[in-house]
Amino acid sequence: MTKRPSSPIRIALCQTVLPQYRVAVYNLLGAQPGVELTVFADARMGSLESASGQESFLHKLAPVKHFHLLGQEFRTQAAHFQAIDPRRFDLAILPWDTRYANLLPAVLKARLRGGPPVVLWGHGYSRRPGALRNALRNFYGRRADAVLLYTRTVANSLTWQSGFDPKRVFVAQNALDQSPIRAAREHWLAHPEELCGFAAEHGLAPDRTLIFVSRMEAENGIEMLLHALVHLCAEEPETRLVMVGDGPKRTELETLAVALGIRERVIFTGKIYDDMALAPWMLSATLLCYPQSIGLSLLHAFGYGLPVVTGDDIQGHPPEIEALTPEVNGLLCRHGDARHMAGQCLRIMRDKGLRQRLSRAALRQVAEEYTLERMVQGFLDLLTMVDGQQRTVAPRPLSGA
User: What's residue 400's pLDDT?
Assistant: First the structure.
């Protein structure tokens, strides 16, 4: 497919929802010279409500319908067929999710009828792997023009172990917009008396405080964190745990804290989305502890310079776990072992030198490696399929520029 150099490349990107953390990514991609980006997403909570109307991309309502067949959940999104219309778009990025019943028909239609190149974007692996599941996912991936992944590790696995053509495998490392995190961190660090007052008000010692920030769901294994706190308090009675978030497990967790005799050691803050409000909690903590299935919370913690302790079941984590290097910016504990988790937290709590070293490395990781610019570069690399031109991401303007 040849594209006239003077005309913008029209990208269609289909997603189930449009979460807040993706808006900054799409804004930077849509702001690139010669790019027109349209994002199709459902308008359920956590989707188009995240957009403010001032974006550099066009967002379109694209309902996702759910149905069950033979005990399995499936989805359809008609926007997949809009995205492959060559009269409207030059590149289509669709979710690499075999639960979409209309995904394979859309990919095949694009190839048979001269549609735009189709890229499947996803993890490239399953956290609940199985031979049939893996074979079906790879079957879909080979029929697309390319696949886009979150990590180089999975990309290498697909090329070396699954036989994907390396020229058709691209990587866009998942990243958070660190600018609001950085601004909140700098604000509170510039007001140390206020930060110390906040910590004192809530009974937090910055070298004896664990924090958890996320939805309280079963897959996160948060019960183990409370059991670990029992062991920690036996060693360090002043230890506190701050639980930021809400979810279906919250009531059960509060009940468990009472049963374990540590309720007075745990602070349940509820939801906090604004980083300026979250920052004093993060900056009053020693580390972020997240038993299992950690995702973007890892990069969020790194933005505040917090080391992370999580389980060593790497396959069970989302792809962001690749940002954690054991003994460099965080520590791993044995999966499901609350006592070992407590021991790893104690190492950081008691060793100031280790804590500072891990903190500096955490900040470097999100400042240099896991950035929006690097993530958007992965999307720009896809455009070589449209016009053969290599592009370098244009950096974001400075605030107030």
Answer: 40
